[in-house]
Amino acid sequence: MIYLDYQATTPLAPEALDAMLPWLRDQHANPHSAHRAGRAAKAAVEVAREQVAALLPGGGTVSFTGGATEALNWAIKGVGGPVVTLATEHAAVLDTVAAIGDAAILPVGRDGLVDLDAVRAAIRPGVKLVAAMLVNNEIGVIQPIAELARLAHDAGALFLCDAVQGYGRVAIPDGCDLIALSAHKVHGPKGIGALWVSDGVALQPLLHGGQQEAAGRSGTLSPALCAGFGAAAALMAANRSEDERHVDRLWTAALATIGDGWIVNGSTGHRYHGNLNIRRDGLDVARLMSDLRDIAFSAGSACASGSGRPSHVLRAIGLRDAEARSSIRLGFGRYTTEAELVAALARIDAAARAQRIAA
């Protein structure tokens, strides 16, 4: 199997697994207990917290959550509306602001970027929160986070950055008040994320209970998941330059391999290079995936797969339904070799061309 679905989830780093195993196999204490075993578990959690925080701005606190969806829900509901956000945001943001019922959803251009003048006009007096994704999960476009945060602050609002796809890969600018993260997007385990909360920002609780986390999140933490997240974050920090060079080489090889007739969706200049979202007129994506079952790629975000609806992100950048349905997303990174990427893309291109011949 050639795995090209890094935006859905990343392979677990061996170092993260090694960090988790002792807490799964030998040490079972509750990190919120006061006895020695509990204190040891708590110490492991705190080491992980420092490792995750090392890739974030200073002046804030990392609170572990059950995942990025919880972190985004907590940030949005904890601040409340009105909210300003973008049409290309993850469903965890769009559905949450819809539940609040007081939000302005801003359009983006064909390149996937938001117009800053439109943002400025939308942040009317009384807006409490502006939310935007650093790196889009479907098309890889990088939004101008520093400028968006500045506009939010100028209007007296807080700024939430969904950094799930960009954490450890793209620098997170200063000025964010809330930052949502997910471990399994950075070669860590599934089932754990985090919300970074800037000093001085107070949130209403999403979960009521023991308020074990400093920012008020309730629930017993898993030392194993925390340790895995921390180890993955430390590895992202240590390998950042090497990973970036490797992804850039893969991106260049990918663009050189795909044949004529493929179109890249979204900006190529403001983009994370580990995300290649491409379309081909008339492509039957379901048939393509069936023909290439030993290559893991996506017809859209994993969160929306099987819905039968065209991607809301691709529609937001102006693609017709037929164009959105003829698009595929390829995600690659640290553990992808250039040889397997080139081989996979050559087979994808050949299978796509065979469809046209058969038609």
Description:
By secondary structure, this protein is an alpha/beta fold. It has two domains: 2-8 and 240-358, Aspartate Aminotransferase, domain 1 (Alpha-Beta Complex), CATH 3.90.1150.10; 14-238, Aspartate Aminotransferase, domain 2 (3-Layer(aba) Sandwich), CATH 3.40.640.10. It contains twelve helices and twelve strands. It has helices spanning 14-25, 36-53, 68-79, 91-100, 116-122, 145-154, 223-238, 240-257, 285-291, 312-316, 321-325, 338-358; strands at residues 2-3, 60-65, 83-86, 103-106, 129-133, 158-162, 178-182, 193-198, 263-264, 275-279, 295-296, 327-331. The strands form three sheets. The chain has a seven-stranded mixed beta sheet, with helices on both faces. The longest helix has 21 residues, at 338-358. The model has no long low-confidence stretch (mean pLDDT 95).
> Helix segment count?
12
CATH superfamily of the largest domain: Type I PLP-dependent aspartate aminotransferase-like (Major domain)
What portion of the residues fall into strands of 2 or more residues?
A: 5-15%
Number of structural domains: 2
Provide the CATH topology of the largest domain. Aspartate Aminotransferase, domain 2
**Which quaternary structure do these chains form?**
single chain
Q: What's the order of the H and E elements? A: EHHEHEHEHEHEEEHHEEHEHHEH
How far the N terminus sits from the C terminus, by CA atoms, comes to: 28 Å
Name the helicity range. 25-40%
